[in-house]
Amino acid sequence: MEDNGGEDPVNNNNNTTVSSEGSIIKVTVKTPKDKEEIAISEDASVTQFKEEISRRFKAKQDQLVLIFAGKILKDGDSLNQHGIKDGLTVHLVIKTAHKAGDGASSSTSCTSQVGSSSGSSSGPSSAAHSSSVGSTGGPVSAPPQTPNILTGFGDLSSLSSMGMGSANFMELQQQMQSQLMSNPEMLSQIMENPLVQNMMSNPDLMRQMIVANPQMQQLMERNPEISHMLNNPELMRQTMELARNPAMMQEMMRNQDRALSNLESIPGGYNALRRMYTDIQEPMFSAARDQFGNNPFSALGGNSDGGVQPSRTENREPLPNPWGPPSSTDPSEGGGGTGTTGSSTAGSTNPSVSNPLAVNSASLGNGMFSSPGMQSLMQQISENPQLMQNMLSAPYMRSMMQSLAQNPDMASQNPASSPSTGTNPAQQLMMQQMLQMFAGGNASSQTPEVQFQQQLEQLGAMGFINREANLQALIATGGDVNAAIERLLGSQPS
Amino acid sequence: MAGVKVPRNFRLLEELEEGQKGVGDGTVSWGLEDDEDMTLTRWRGMIIGPPRTIYENRMYSLKVECGPRYPEAPPFVRFVTKINLNGVHNSNGVVDTRAVSALAKWQNSYSIRVVLQELRRLMMCKENMKLPQPPEGQIYTN
Q1: Cβ contacts of B115 on chain A, cutoff 8 Å
Q2: Residue ranges of the Ubiquitin-like domain (chain A) (predicted)?
Q3: Which one of A45, A131, A224, B137 has the largest count of C-beta atoms within 10 Å of its C-beta?
Q4: Rg, Å, chain B Cα set
């Protein structure tokens, strides 16, 4: 094989320097971290080369291993023998105790990286403090419970140690959650993490974590069915299986949706659904939207009627985060016959049992606002600075506000749907309590009438004589007079 | 330039040059086994064991054979240095084509470097990174 464009390194001698015996050639010596150009005589032996290298790289000669063109250069060889010529590169590995010269490739595409680093972090015991695991690594318990699920993901343990127990903590959680949501790969990586899987396959542990959430405890008191479900290991196992396997989960949800739509068509089924929703889902709904984190069992089908079995299983839809960016779950097939929330019509999804927060991937942000409760909440917090601060502790809120601002239609539709809210005092009460929790955690023990005495008087003075409607409006807006007025005006034909 | 079939020898010469110039991240190396080999068939490769694995600090020598149909057909790869790795025959170091995705789904744009790098990546996988290894320096004799 003769000259090939003058660059045939196999046989040809391209001497750029003085062509004499023992001319100096410049050889690049490359370690994974470093690169040096070394001038050496072309007749030199490998040993001499190594001498030079050890000087330049400050390493002992016997620590050096030279590789050229896939072959290790032995001390007895000469450079010529291996065909090392001017301008070529020789690889160097410095054998130190702690891997100085080694392949510093961080491009580990395997999940091994996640696995190995999380193995070194705090184990499941710390995760036991966190309450909701079903949301894979999603936001967890109230800030007071400091060690949280983030510590279970080794790479993120540093995150968990920052800003714990404060508003920042929530921020981090939410950020992580949104990252997770937007990156299904990362999600599946985390899911594949053996630590997570171990945790999830331990029903007792899961139950403990879930029960530890005060929200859940309240719920459980109110609805014994939930506790029943929690205590049923079979169900737990199935649920966790679901949580572990997002594909299966989607499948499950699709089935649920379909089942629900079937249920709706059964005579009397609609009412059953509705009852189911108001009794069980609403509290879960509001619990899930609580500031302190997401409840994994955000939708429960405690179906006492109609005998539809899929709805009995917990919906562990990952991250039903009302504040978050779109999740990758499939949209409910309009099957949820739970029109009681009075979700506005255009472009939003009715919350269904399996899709409680109206996660419509087409218009996610909007879907969140389809509930009039939400709307009043927004108004409420804009009045109350403390609430505002709490809510805005997470940056995503801003983006949500933006999307709301961009969609004034949605906003205007909400008051129009208030009549339905008016028919559901339970829901309003929930909303009210939730708001109060936001504002500092005092649950009101007075009746709304007493509580809103002052506001009622105001409304009366302004000319709203329908005390009943006033009261409803005030409950819905949590005592916000202005919002209540708008509500009242919106529901009256003008 | 899609669809142009580069003649085998051109390709191999290019790869030879890259091997000598140290193209890549420096964790693998390759070159002709015998500089006089006009057919550019027999190659030698070297993989530096990745850090934080059991292969760390070790250098693995390989033989790569690029047949007449290369690069349309994948090369034959076998380890010279003894190694315990999934996809490598314990007795003779031959790499199972089906175990390495670069070989199983070979494309003619792949190269020796790609194969070596893939093998290195395999060393970093969970299932491989902790496999007990034979003492350093042993080679397959057949």
Answers
A1: none
A2: 25-95
A3: A131
A4: 15
Residue at token pair 């921020």: A171
Q: Which residues of B touch A70 (CB under 8 A)?
A: 19, 29-31, 43-46, 61-62, 64
pLDDT (0 to 100) of residue B22: 82
Return the minimum-mean-pLDDT range out of A20-34, A219-233, A466-480: A219-233
Say yes or no to pLDDT of A158 above 80: no
Q: What is the CATH number of domain A24-94?
A: 3.10.20.90
Closest-approach residue (CA) in chain B for A94: B57
Residues of chain A in contact with residue B17, where contact means CB-CB under 8 angstroms, are: 7, 9
CB contact under 8 A, A83 and B46: no
Name the band, by pLDDT with cuts 50, 70 and 90, for residue A466.
Answer: confident
List, in order of start, the domains of chain B with CATH numbers: 8-124 (3.10.110.10)
The shortest CB-CB distance from A69 to any of B29, B50, B129 is to B29
Distance CA A269, CA A273 (A): 6
**pLDDT digits over A302-312, tens only?**
333 333 344 44
How far does the CA of residue A47 sit from the closest CA of chain B (Å)?
19
Cβ pair A99:B57 closer than 8 A: yes
Of A222-226, A333-337, A386-390, the least confident: A333-337
Domain extents for chain A? 24-94, 177-290, 448-490
* Residue A149 confidence (pLDDT): 44
ipTM of the complex: 0.86
Instruction: State how far the Cα of A347 lies from the Cα of A337, in Å rounded to an integer.
Output: 16
Contacts of A111 in chain B (CB under 8 A): 126
Among residues of chain A, what percentage have pLDDT more than 90?
A: 2
Place of tokens 């985060």: A321
Beta carbons of A9 and A24 less than 8 angstroms apart = no
User: A8 contacts in B (CB within 8 Å)?
Assistant: 13
Q: Does B5 touch chain A (CB under 8 A)?
A: no
Listed residue (B4, B54, B49, B26) closest to B113, CA to CA: B26
Residues 6+ apart with CB under 8 A from A363: A347, A348, A349
Q: Does B126 touch chain A (CB under 8 A)?
A: yes
Distance of CA B39 to the CA centre of its chain: 18
Q: Say which residue, A149 or A221, is predicted with more confidence.
A: A221
Asked if B49's CB is within 8 angstroms of A9's CB, the reply is no
Pick the CATH number of A448-490 from 1.10.8.10, 1.10.10.10, 3.30.2290.10, 3.40.50.10860: 1.10.8.10
pLDDT digits (tens, 9 = 90+) for A240-291: 666 656 666 777 777 777 777 776 666 666 666 677 666 666 666 565 555 4
User: A120: which chain B residues are within 8 Å (Cβ-Cβ)?
Assistant: none
| CB spacing of A110 vs B62 below 8 angstroms | no
Task: Report the percentage of chain A scoring pLDDT > 70.
Answer: 26
Contact A9 B16 (CB under 8 A): yes
